Hints:
This protein is of the alpha/beta class. Helices cover 29% and strands 25% of the residues. It folds into two domains: 4-32 and 284-412, Lyase, Ornithine Decarboxylase, Chain A, domain 1; 34-282, Alanine racemase (TIM Barrel, Alpha-Beta Barrel).
Amino acid sequence: MDHFGYRNGEMYAEEVPLREIADAVGTPFYCYSSATLERHYQVFTEAFAKQGLDLLLCYAVKANTNQAVIGTLAARGSGADVVSEGELRRALKAGVPAEKIVYSGVAKTAREMAFALESGIYQFNVESVPELHQLSQVASEMGQEAAIAFRINPDVDAKTHAKISTGKSENKFGVPWVHARDIYAEAARLPGIRVVGLDVHIGSQLTQLEPFREAFERVAGLIEQLRADGHEISRLDLGGGLGIPYDPTDPEPPSPDAYAAMVKEVVGHLGCRIIIEPGRLLVGNAGILVSRVIYVKEGEERKFLIIDAAMNDLVRPSMYDAYHEIVPVLETDEMPEPCDVVGPVCETGDTFARARPIPPLGSGDLLAIRSAGAYGAVMSSTYNTRLLVPEVLVKDGKFAVIRPRQSYEQLIGLDQLPDWLAQ
Ligand SMILES: *Cc1c(COP(=O)(O)O)cnc(C)c1O
């Protein structure tokens, strides 16, 4: 559920007509709804509270790193899951307390580890033995102890798109679950390391509970073994990955309530503090990308709606074959006609939808690409020397630009000519 809908014949974000924002900032732009972000956070945390589970929700900021988005969730009590020093700096700056930040990722460098230790983060999710040794060395040199969980690769099929599956043995993520006992034993012997938990994250946009259940059962058995081996495992990080509805004709993904009930059933008896790292679920449907039609082109075989947003602004359709609902901003009851919705970039992959039934639109008309709040703006680029687009946040009948449109000066001005060309 989100707060983008038609009123008086046009689409609003909460109490604000999109037309008004488009007039103020131009197109394309991303628009996020505070009420939707807050609601998603509340639904998720309440689902766990109902099960009596001790929960730390760490928003996976990589889904949308705008500080205003992180800050909206942090104000509700959210922690953060970060995967780079840059994300850690952003989360801290946006007001997430260090003691609610977990640090994931396969390639943390010594410098990044030192910065995270200095900041006093809650936990490192360690993904390999070489990383463990590096962290032990950095922490010991600083006279500190790093609280760690190992990210376990449980070798289960998440049944999602191959590019966002992370829990099979052939994926680069985590330590193989079959070697976990040896690796924990090694960690227990190292200086600067305090073993506190276990972590698992099997992929993104999961639309069924079964792969989660399979992974969590495996992990629960492992925790019992590790405890029998003498390790103190008090935190269980279950990662993110719960999917959202993109296509309204698809079956609904499992609800946060069903997810939390399954967590309670499978791992509740362990008495661990549960950490979850949802990204997409919190922000995906809290954002849209608003664009304007440039031309309508009648091709030989089909009709093309050429819009001012492109794959550099929202790469998910070309990168993951992702479906995004596309709707006109002005409500209409005209019959939809199949068309290809394409952007200006010189790539055939710059296509948002193929043969999609959309009501007739003309040059200058506004449209909204829905469910674009996660892995949208953060994955954008300036390919074709296109400017990064503005991000706008709506709250209580107001809107604010939370990142302005880049200027040509900022973009082109970054190039530097070597002295032999600078004459
Ligand atoms: C990407 C990621 C997440 C968030 O995944 P969503 O599908 O957006 O919920 C959580 N944890 C880790 C380690 C990740 O890499």
